[in-house]
Write a structure and sequence with these properties.
The chain is an alpha/beta fold. It is 49% helix and 11% strand. The chain is globular.
């Protein structure tokens, strides 16, 4: 039987470390930026980190326009407004300071600036022919890995759907700066939800049907970093060393799932978020134990290694015993971070379960998920999680 040829790609240049923001002037000069569209959200715009980045731009005498009207799960109308400012003021580059929502808006604006049309035109995989305009991303959460991922998610409010726009080699930041100083103002719950988003990225990429030795190494290391650092980081966002490790883990996991695809957990969370306006990281975290348990029988050896990466004492156990300890460790991690254990606790109503199950199956995550999942399987998963 012929084996599948797999690939790995991550064209983003990453600057990482405490005070890595000091490299911003050098990066801007190297990129040859003439005018920036600087995107952030109103919350970040009130922080000291925003003031620091703004001062750096002003000291460089680099013209920039500021756009701060970015909401969680950003809409296509937000992308259109930001794009209009980009075109009106003839910007040449994009700078994002924020979480996944802000970076995704920056990606979407870059696609429109280079390709025209509406962002809805590019839903799916590799639908835009021209490379987006260059994006410099500074993440302020350790979760989405959007700075290095090949996808962005934008809400089409006309259809109440989340658009997934993917470009394997094009839809990533040109440069990313990972500096834990950007995380210091994160609220506890946002830090926890973002961290579990990164964990799900790493887990689903690790067990994906498209996984390969390169992504396995990155994802297992990311899982280890998260397991070792997420509790002290969430407990104290001023713990810079833990914050740096979490930023690195989020980027590693973003590189992983961009090459392998995600799985059932992401698929379920996608529709929970779309229907009930639940933050993406929280939806992922609540669905995580149920989706992970469902997939265990498809890849027990990998789950056993997952348990070890999470710090489990699995020596002397059978593969299946070790694998099951991974599910227990996941539940404990959620509990320690204050993640609710049921979908009903985050606003999901039972009457939408059948519809979400159908949409999950139609989204065809079976091309990545290690265990084939029917509509009935999704129905049972949602019911167990509810």
């Amino acid at each position: 039987m012929d084996s599948k040829v797999l690939t790995y790609c991550c064209p983003t240049q990453i600057h990482l470390g405490i005070h890595a923001l000091r490299t911003l002037p050098e990066i801007i000069t190297r990129l040859g930026a003439k005018r920036l569209l600087f995107l952030t959200d109103n919350g970040v715009a009130s922080t000291e980190i925003f003031k620091l980045v703004k001062n750096i731009l002003e000291e460089q005498h680099l013209p920039f326009d500021l756009f701060t009207d970015i909401e969680p799960d950003p809409s296509h109308t937000t992308v259109e407004k930001a794009h209009q400012i980009y075109e009106k003021n003839k910007a040449t580059h994009l700078l994002t300071l924020g979480g996944g929502s802000t970076i995704d808006v920056g990606k979407a604006v870059g696609i429109l600036a280079a390709n025209g049309g509406r962002i809805q035109d590019y839903e799916g995989i590799d639908r835009f022919p021209n490379p987006p305009v260059p994006l410099l991303a500074i993440p302020t959460t350790a979760g989405t890995g959007s700075e290095v991922s090949g996808s962005c998610v934008i809400t089409d409010t006309d259809r109440s759907l989340k658009l997934s726009i993917r470009g394997s080699t094009l839809n990533r930041a040109k440069v990313a700066i990972l500096d834990p100083l950007t995380l210091s103002s994160l609220p506890h719950h946002v830090a926890a939800h973002a961290a579990m988003d990164a964990f799900v990225h790493a887990l689903e990429s690790y067990v994906s049907l498209n996984a390969n030795p390169i992504t396995d190494a990155m994802n297992l290391y990311a899982i280890g970093l998260i397991s070792q650092n997420v509790r002290p980081f969430v407990a104290n966002r001023s713990n810079l060393e833990a914050g740096l490790q979490m930023l690195c883990a989020a980027s590693l996991a973003g590189m992983g799932f961009s090459n392998t695809g995600a799985g059932n957990i992401h698929c379920m969370a996608r529709f929970v978020g779309a229907f009930f306006h639940v933050p993406h990281g929280l939806a992922n975290a609540v669905c995580l134990p149920y989706g992970a348990d469902f997939n265990l029988m498809a890849s027990p050896q990998k789950y056993a290694r997952l348990a070890s990466a999470m710090g489990g004492a699995v020596h002397g156990m059978t593969t299946l015993e070790a694998a099951r300890t991974a599910i227990d460790a996941i539940r404990r991690l959620n509990g320690d971070l204050g993640i609710p254990s049921r979908l009903r606790e985050i606003g999901v109503t039972e009457n939408r379960i059948s519809e979400m199950a159908r949409l999950c199956f139609e989204a065809n995550y079976n091309r990545w998920n290690p265990r084939y999942t029917t509509v009935e399987d999704f129905q049972l998963l949602f019911e167990k999680a509810f």
